[in-house]
Specification:
Elements (H helix, E strand, L loop, with lengths): L1 H7 L1 H12 L4 H24 L1
Length: 50
């Protein structure tokens, strides 16, 4: 389960890149998509360690 969550963390990271490359607001890219990716990576690490 942890590996799937880690792989799925790439989706919000990709969304953040899309927002940044299309000159969207940086607050949305980092605050929403970036934070989501960080939380997903943290949860996947916890699942892999447990």
């Amino acid at each position: 389960m942890g590996w799937f969550m880690l792989a799925a963390a790439g989706m919000p990271a990709g969304d953040a890149l899309i927002v940044l490359r299309s000159n969207g607001p940086k607050a949305v890219a980092y605050g929403i998509h970036g934070a989501t990716a960080v939380v997903m990576v943290a949860i996947s690490v916890l699942l892999l360690v447990a």
